[in-house]
Design a protein that fits this description.
There is one protein chain. By secondary structure, the chain is an alpha+beta fold. It is built from four helices and four strands, in the order ααββββαα. 39% of the residues lie in helices and 16% in strands. It has a domain at 78-166: Sufe protein. Chain: A (Alpha-Beta Complex). It is elongated and about 75 Å long.
């Protein structure tokens, strides 16, 4: 028994020593890695454009007008209710509003509510999923971590509503 205790204390001591003495490389050494320039050829035109910090187009250039995404093309204007998509934690059902061929609103009609924890997770996830749909203009959205089943059911319900909007 004493041997085990001594071995455990020695292992803890080694672990603490290693953790305390751990050093990370300076941040400047990570960002100054030299990357050789690509071979140049006289037949390849060289661009002299510079990037703008904000990601906005360079001054004097005009940005093209936004166009509906391919997923949103052909949508009828109106309000469309998706099918009830059940999952292990409860049903999810949404309603979308389409105007001018774009999804302009999403309303959660039904979400898991039987279990307090499921209801809480759904209440946190649904606003993120709403924003995902409005941004993607489709049912192909990112899943909210910790609410995978609710996210998948949300996407299924949105897809069924989009199918009705295309019919």
């Amino acid at each position: 028994m004493a041997v085990r205790a001594a071995a455990t204390l020695a292992a803890i001591g080694v672990g603490v020593t290693l953790a305390v003495s751990f050093r990370t490389p300076p941040s400047s050494s990570l960002s100054t890695a030299a990357v050789p320039p690509p071979p140049s050829s006289s037949s390849v035109p060289v661009s002299t454009a510079t990037a703008t910090p904000s990601g906005a187009p360079p001054s004097g250039a005009t940005s093209p007008a936004p166009t509906p995404t391919p997923a949103a093309i052909g949508l009828k204007s109106g309000t469309f209710t998706g099918q009830n998509a059940a999952n292990f934690f409860g049903p999810v059902q949404v309603q979308i509003v389409v105007s001018g061929g774009r999804i302009t609103g999403v309303k959660t009609i039904q979400s898991p509510s039987d279990n307090p924890q499921s209801a809480y997770i759904a209440s946190v996830a649904m606003p993120y999923l709403l924003q995902e749909v409005l941004q993607a203009q489709s049912a192909q959205i990112n899943v909210v971590s910790g609410a995978t089943y609710d996210s998948q059911s949300y996407a299924q319900s949105v897809q069924s509503a989009l199918d009705m909007a295309r019919a």
